[in-house]
Amino acid sequence: MKEEIIIAGFGGQGVLSMGKILAYSGIMQDQEVSWMPSYGPEMRGGTANVTVILSDEKISSPILNTFDTAIILNQQSLDKFEEAVKPGGVLLYDPNGITSPPARKDINIYKIEGAEEAAKMGNPKTFNMIILGAFLKIKPIVKNENVEKGLEKSLPERYHKLIPLNLEAIQKGHDSVKSIQTV
Amino acid sequence: MGELRLMKGNEAIAEAAIRYGVDGYFGYPITPQSEVIETLMARKPWEETGMVVVQAESEVAAANMLYGGAACGKKVMTSSSSPGVSLKLEAISYIAGAELPALVVNVVRGGPGLGTIQPAQSDYFQAVKGGGHGDYHLIVFAPNSVQEMADFVEDTYELAIKYRNPAMILSDGIIGQMMEKVELKDFKPRFTDAEIKEKFGSWATTGKTPDRERNIVTSLELQSELQEKHNHKLQAKYQQMRETEVRFESTNTEDAEYLLVAYGSSSRICRKAMELARDKGIKVGLLRPITLFPFPTKQLAELANQVKGMLSVEMSAGQMVEDIRLAVNGKVPVEHFGRYGGIIHSPDEIVNALEKQIIKG
């Protein structure tokens, strides 16, 4: 198994921490992982993205041009990464703020109303876990129990009381993701 | 098995320093290596192991604190990124001249000048050819993973002690900022004052010495005959390093017709490029120097008898390629493919360059 993922959105949406939780979940099931963030000036008030790789084997390049999955959380990121999805790959996006939806015909497209569902849950901070849940529904590459362990490892102890809420958000993502196009 | 964690390269180096029993860290923040000092400050090792962490007023000050600490026989380190390392070079040359063990970490960013905060490998010349003034060399290790960022703290420092010579970990913004799985080693106690006297008492300034001659730490010797003799001693040390301390990793070289040569994060990207090229039926191998000084000259010279050409892949305008050419001595074509200014090569670009510059060239 090898999954090469780009997660891209605005700074503050929890893009980097979502990638970190996914990577930690991979470690919990003995996989090799890499997490490579953008760290340039574009992070300040602008877009943030992170490349996450989970693999059964040693990871060669942590930097990639094409991806098995793109998780897209704003229009700028869609413009930048839609073309980078491998043919037959997955594009998961939140339509909130998207003015021109993905147009590729050769990839699988899914939609998750993450911002809306987070608002319904009454806690906008659950947004990134809803997105993660949606992704794991499409690609169940890590087991639920390992995601829970990943959360324990990546969250400081003072936030451990929030783990049940995060798991609930992941479940919400699972239940709410919609398929737009399958190839 | 030690403790497994997901860490950035910069965090791993800081944690490894605490666990290895480093006595003092002196630094000044600069992107993309600021997490080294951030991690140390957050970890407060002075409460745990007694390790001192100082944010100095400048890079120059930090490097001279390194010199002072090393002179006392303490395990000391500093870290910075390219423009900051330039500022430290005066002290580094003094440390080499005074024959002191110390560790300098460079998490390289693009230059020249303030350049960019994005990753690069354009400080190769500075790291391996001296950098500062005078005929000296650092022991230079180039990690290509977060695990190696952690492991090389001990590996470089052991050699620094063995040769009484400063060592450098030459990393870059990719390895510094990337998170990977790291297995951390167990804690080692710092040397006690008695241990320092026992191990380094012949040269370190360890306090009053009614029972022996004073140890004087200096890089100054005005008598030319003595200064030449001192230089001979240094050169003999460097020669011994060349003969015994070379480290490298070779992959798929057994049947290789072509060779990629790359260090640090470029070697990771080359590994992917090699897979792509092999899928196309091109028999390509990868030689990755782990030590940049001493350089795997002999191994490259041997491979020159086997392969039809070599491509040096660096995030620079072409620096290591000169050392490869010296090793190969004209036997086969050696070309360079580089991206720089903060741009990172893609694996596809590397395969294209190999085909265009070496196979069809």
- Compute the CA-based radius of gyration of chain B: 21 Å
Number of DSSP helical runs of chain A: 6
Order of helices and strands of chain B: EHEHHEHEHEHEHEHEHHEEHEEHEHEH
Counting DSSP H or I runs of 4 or more residues, the number of helices of chain B is 14
Mean pLDDT across every amino acid position of chain A = 94
Radius of gyration of chain A: 15 Å
Beta-strand portion of chain A reads 25-35%
Domain unit count of chain A: 1
User: How much helical structure, as a percent, in the residues of chain A?
Assistant: 25-40%
pLDDT < 50 stretches of chain B: none
Q: What is the CATH level 1 assignment of the largest domain in chain B? A: Alpha Beta
Helix amount of chain B:
40-55%
Q: Which structural class do you get from the secondary structure elements of chain B?
A: alpha/beta
In total, how many beta strands of chain A? 7
> What pair of chains forms the biggest interface?
A-B, 21 and 23 residues
Helix and strand topology:
The complex is a heterodimer of chains A (183) and B (361).
Chain A: E1 2-10, H1 15-28, E2 32-37, E3 47-55, E4 67-72, H2 75-81, E5 85-93, E6 108-111, H3 114-120, H4 127-138, H5 144-154, H6 163-176, E7 178-181
Parallel strand pairs in A: 1-4, 4-5, 5-6
Antiparallel strand pairs in A: 1-3, 2-3, 6-7
Chain B: E1 3-8, H1 9-20, E2 24-27, H2 35-43, H3 45-48, E3 52-55, H4 59-71, E4 76-80, H5 82-97, E5 102-108, H6 124-128, E6 139-141, H7 146-163, E7 166-172, H8 173-177, E8 179-184, H9 193-200, H10 224-244, E9 248-251, E10 258-261, H11 264-279, E11 284-289, E12 291-293, H12 297-303, E13 309-314, H13 320-328, E14 334-338, H14 347-359
Parallel strand pairs in B: 2-3, 2-4, 4-5, 5-7, 6-7, 10-11, 10-13, 13-14
Antiparallel strand pairs in B: 1-8, 6-12, 9-11
